[in-house]
Amino acid sequence: MPTSPASAPLSRRTMAYVLAGGRGSRLLELTDKRVKPAVYFGAKSRIIDFALSNALNSGIRHIAVATQYKAHSLIRHLQRGWNFLRAERNESFDILPASQRVSETMWYEGTADAVYQNLDIIESYSPEFIVILAGDHIYKMDYEIMLQQHVSQGADVTVGCIEVPRAEASGFGVMAVDEHHRILSFLEKPKDPPGMPDKPEMALASMGIYVFSTRVLFDQLRRDAAEPGSSRDFGKDLIPYLVQHGKAVAHRFPSSCVRSSDEAEAYWRDVGTLDAYWAANIDLTQATPGLDLYDTAWPIWTYAEITPPAKLTQDGPGRGEAIDCILSGGCVVSGAVLRRSLLFTGTRVHPGAQLEESVVLPGVEIARSARLRKVIVDRGVRIPEGLVVGEDPELDRQRFRHTESGICLITQPMVDRLGL
């Protein structure tokens, strides 16, 4: 990476390295065919598009994505939607599947190993800084601000963090910090997360975002790779080591969260469960949602399919109606009624059908007189005529994936078992 003037943004001397190999098992059948970062979100995007868009909008022009499990859908999306970064403009976009480059028997053993196995590729670009990103969260963030804090505080690692309810913090790395933001302790996914001194019901949790100077990262990855018994993981191994033996600093997300005039609070979501995924999508149908996808100053880049416009039409005695809904390109709603629902590309809804608080992924066809409430419909599903979901919890549990809060996931194999 050519040397930039001292006055240039730090992002131009930075590579973003996105970890996108997570199985996403808590999304159950929704990740049967795709890894969590490749799951659809917001009517036209994939989850990974948020981390990638943040990097691009922050000014970072060298991006790498490490993939592993069920990666075909993700790789295809990245090839179609993110191939505009050009080497002739001093830009790069690398897709790095686990390919046994270090050993014929080794896949990526952990998040740190997913970077370690590709050190030669990173080194070929000579970045001064590395931003390590999780590819499975929904948020808007300016990484340049985090980079500036990293440099100004002379940190070995800077960890992005957010306040979460203590009862929910056991799925995160939890830290304690001093008045200068230095991390004093770091516990990865503790069973009993410690609360914050001034907010005992809240915990300071890692977002899975780390800034390193490249030299420090390389030294730590090589040290960890030679350490017997290491799990080769940032949260379990590298970050706790640097807390004890180096200078680890916390970066508070609200200070770099990108908000439009319509966003009142710092928005960050882990949509790793069916309930959380459904709620985050349905929230977008509100008049003023927590996340503004219409902010042209910070666009969410994605693969833009060429589709005809959405169409809402009357068919026979029925009248097409959509209230508080999002309809993506290629959708046709004929004589059906939709309320607080989100339809992805190419969905067809036939006369007499009723949808309420439904998240419908691309290419779904909903037949006449079907009634769906509080559902997630997987890509390409054919909903039979007259099918009713969301009105009888006990029947729904027998036929579909039903959560404790009453959300139903519908996949084609589940529909096929009905024999309708």
Automatic annotation (TrEMBL):
The keyword Transferase is annotated on this UniProt entry: yes
UniProt enzyme class: transferase
CDD domains with a match to the protein in the record: ADP_Glucose_PP, LbH_G1P_AT_C
Site keyed Could play a key role in the communication between the regulatory and the substrate sites: positions: Q68, W107
Keywords for the protein's UniProt record, in alphabetical order: ATP-binding, Carbohydrate metabolism, Glycogen biosynthesis, Glycogen metabolism, Nucleotide-binding, Nucleotidyltransferase, Transferase
Pathway(s) where this gene product acts: Glycan biosynthesis; glycogen biosynthesis
Subunit field text: Homotetramer.
Protein family according to the UniProt entry: Belongs to the bacterial/plant glucose-1-phosphate adenylyltransferase family.
Protein name per its UniProtKB record: Glucose-1-phosphate adenylyltransferase
